[in-house]
Design a protein that fits this description.
Helix content is 34%, strand content 22%. The protein contains 13 helices and 17 strands. β13 and β14 form a beta hairpin. α7 packs parallel to α12. The radius of gyration is 21 Å and the shape is globular. 44% of the residues are buried. The model has no long low-confidence stretch (mean pLDDT 95).
């Protein structure tokens, strides 16, 4: 039996703590000393990115916080606007770096202090992004010498760097202890691909390849998100994840508000906010988040702390006009939608494609609301709860 001692468990008072396995551990700590929650994030996020990459054939990355993804993405080139809102306009981006920039940029507030996961080798460009963000650690299949040198300098040499053996395959049955009692179940080995969305139940049945890719990203992201969960995706990246809510409509609203926030950050007025020099990335993120919220007066009352001139806030009407230009968004749900109100809310965030298991006694109502807006919906027939 091989084991690795951890600093502590979920909390500092929970000692001793370790991870162990019969046989060789598939993880190697190259730097730092990861804790219990770090490894929960690392192993869940590793599964997500490797499945995403296998399903799409593209480099994949994830940004995890407290055992759920704040963001996940596959490689797609970044526009100048995307580079600006993700703070990477000064970097030469590789496919892996682009994937992580997208994953981190989905919900930058939630990604503060994240655990990063990369489906392949961490290169120098990706390490440079990680080096200047507030992050707890990273797991990847490997690291170039240049990348490892950069990461070992982060957090005064204490940044957690974990290498995963890509050939590792877990046992088909998994166990979990709760209150001294051991639970056992078969691993969720479900493979999610294009065929997952073949049962289209709406009048509109046009599901283009980009939408299939986005639905794949959504459903694989949900497979590793604490339930209940809903995920909005556009251009190969999650733009809003609603996790761990008891009510599905609250998942849909939470994820939708994050998707709206992501899109509002691209508004020309937000892109041109006159920040003072020296404002850190976290402070910019927080300022932008408050400025586009209903609490914008909190920022305007102290505008001279952040801006060179006092900016004009976006009106509710202007926000709505801008949000109405967001189209082609894909939405996945880890269980059925019990009411059409979820679709009504999703429509407000530009959703055009939906995947959910189906099976509600009100499926007809949900389909009817999709047809009302011309939304394409596929019933997958399979639930994706994760706990």
């Amino acid at each position: 039996m091989k084991e690795l001692e951890l600093k502590y468990g979920c909390n500092p008072n929970q000692k001793p703590s370790r991870i162990f396995i019969d046989g060789e551990l598939p993880v190697t700590v190259l730097n730092g000393r990861p804790g219990y929650i770090n490894f929960l994030d690392a192993l869940n996020s590793w599964q997500l990115v490797t499945e995403l990459s296998a399903a799409t054939g593209l480099p994949a990355a994830a940004s995890f916080k407290h055992v759920s993804p704040a963001g996940a993405a596959v490689y797609s080139p970044l526009s100048d606007v995307m580079k600006k809102i993700y703070f990477v306009e000064d970097l030469e981006l590789t496919p892996m770096a682009s994937a992580y920039a997208r994953a981190r940029g989905a919900d930058r507030m939630s990604s503060y202090g994240d655990w990063a996961a990369l489906s392949g080798i961490c290169d120098e460009a990706t390490a440079r992004i990680l080096s200047r963000e507030v992050s707890d650690g990273v797991i990847a299949a490997g690291y170039t010498d240049e990348a490892l040198a950069i990461l070992k300098r982060k957090k005064k040499g204490n940044y957690n760097v974990v290498q995963m053996d890509p050939s590792y395959r877990p046992a088909p049955v998994e166990h979990k202890d709760v209150y001294g009692i051991t639970f056992e179940q078969g691993r969720n080995e479900l493979k999610i691909g294009p065929e997952f969305f073949s049962n289209i139940v709406t009048k509109n049945k046009e599901l283009p390849p980009e939408a299939v890719r986005d639905l794949i990203v959504s459903m694989i992201t949900l497979k590793y998100t604490q339930s209940n969960s809903v995920c909005y995706v556009k251009d190969g990246q999650a733009i809003g994840v609603g996790a761990g809510q008891q009510s599905r409509i609250h998942c849909t609203r939470l994820a939708g508000s994050k998707a709206d926030n992501w899109y509002l950050r691209q508004h020309p007025a937000i892109l041109e906010l006159p920040f003072k020099k020296g404002i850190s990335r976290p402070d910019r993120d927080n300022t932008i988040d408050v400025f586009i919220s209903e609490d914008y007066m909190d920022i305007l009352n102290e505008w001279d702390k952040y801006f060179t001139v006092k900016p004009e806030p976006l009106s509710r009407e202007e926000k709505r006009r801008w949000l109405d230009t967001n189209t082609g968004v894909a939405l996945g749900s880890d269980a059925f939608f019990p009411f059409g109100d979820n679709i009504e809310r999703a429509h407000k965030s530009g959703v055009a494609y939906v995947a959910e298991p189906g099976g509600s006694i009100r499926d007809d109502n949900v389909i009817e609301v999709c047809d009302k807006y011309g939304i394409v919906m596929a019933f997958t027939g399979i639930r994706l709860f994760h706990h």
